[in-house]
Amino acid sequence: MELVVATALIVIVSAMAVPLMTNASDLIKLSQSAREVERELQTARLKAVSANQAMRVRFDCPAAKQYRMVELVGTPSVPAAADGAANRCSLSNYPYPTPDNDMLTRPNNDGPLRWVDPSVSFSQAATIEFRSDGTAHTNNGGVNPWPAIPSPGANIILSRNGKTRTILVNSVGKVQLLP
User: Fold this and answer.
1) Among 48, 30, 27, 72, which residue's Cα sits nearest to residue 156?
2) Residue 41 belongs to what domain range?
3) Structure pTM?
4) Which of 13, 76, 127, 149 has CA atoms 20 to 30 A from the CA of 167?
5) What is the pLDDT along the chain (179 residues), one digit of tens a residue?
6) The domain spanning residue 6 has which CATH number?
7) Which candidate, 48, 23, 7, 1, places its Cα nearest to that of 160?
8) Going by C-beta distance under 8 Å and a sequence separation of 6 or more, which residues neighbour residue 172?
């Protein structure tokens, strides 16, 4: 009889723990993906300042759940036609690492194609451009150069099973993973 009671208690406690474990797993995967995206944004800002070249981070590019740091081809005022979102994330058109190490030809600073966990998606994410002075800009209507991110900042929101994590980027280039 004691064995049956002990077994029943174990089953009840286990049944209560399964949803908690699933919830924890969701948060872990979502938080890990958000930290990786936040690090890529920080890297893009650092690369823009150190290379004295505008860098962009594109989301859902070339496909959903993928993102890539790319060097702006041209200038912020006059981007090259080759800098279209459709082709810049393509590894066949712009391989990583670049086979051309000549610093006079661009792009030389494109990063690898990255992706979030398959169960995580971008529910809100606009391309962010970091300039050589560290400031952050986003495209609001197709004007060049892109305007500075308005206050309070641009949100990049990742979601998984109804849970979200937000990364905030402000106009001075501060990248912050919100709690």
Assistant:
1) 30
2) 2-177
3) 0.85
4) 76
5) 889 888 988 888 877 767 766 677 889 999 999 999 999 999 999 999 999 999 999 999 889 999 999 999 889 999 888 777 678 888 888 889 888 777 677 788 999 999 999 999 999 999 999 999 999 999 877 788 999 999 999 999 999 999 999 999 999 999 999 98
6) 3.55.40.10
7) 23
8) 134, 135, 136
